[in-house]
Amino acid sequence: MELTTFYKNFVSLCTKNGLNPSGVAKAIGLSNAAATGWKKGKMPNDTTREKLANYFHVTVADLIGDDCAEKEAAAPKDVGLSPMESQLMEYVRTLTDDQKKMLLAQLQALKNQE
How many CB atoms lie within 10 A of CB 21? Predict the structure, then answer.
């Protein structure tokens, strides 16, 4: 059986953080059977995806999209940014998609005050 991209990413994130899939499922309030279902091809619902993304400090798109390891290797490494800009980017990368939208709105409002 072919594993879904979501499950491959989920296992990759677990491994990267020294965790097992069942333990992560329990940590976000689910039974370990949830992880078994994901392994068999079931997809978590939107709420669970958001909980998992927040747990691992990644976006939902990263969690369900292309392989995280491939994305990480292909991502540019903040070339040409100042140390402060690089630090800002590190913080931004840990935000959920909703938090990024709120931050963008705040930055636009700040820019408009100039």
Answer: 19
Q: Give the count of alpha carbons within 13 A of 98, CB side only.
A: 5
Three-state SS sequence of 35-83: HHHHHCCCCCCHHHHHHHHHHHCCCHHHHHCCCHHHHHHHCCCCCCCCH
Can you tell me the distance from the alpha carbon of 33 to that of 94, in angstroms, rounded to the nearest whole number? 28
Q: What tokens appear for 26 in the block?
A: 């329990």
Q: Are 22 and 32 in contact (CB under 8 A)?
A: yes
pLDDT digits (tens, 9 = 90+) for 30-71: 998 999 999 998 999 989 999 999 999 999 888 888 544 444
CA 21 to chain centre: 15
**pTM for this entry:** 0.57
Amino acid type, 21: P
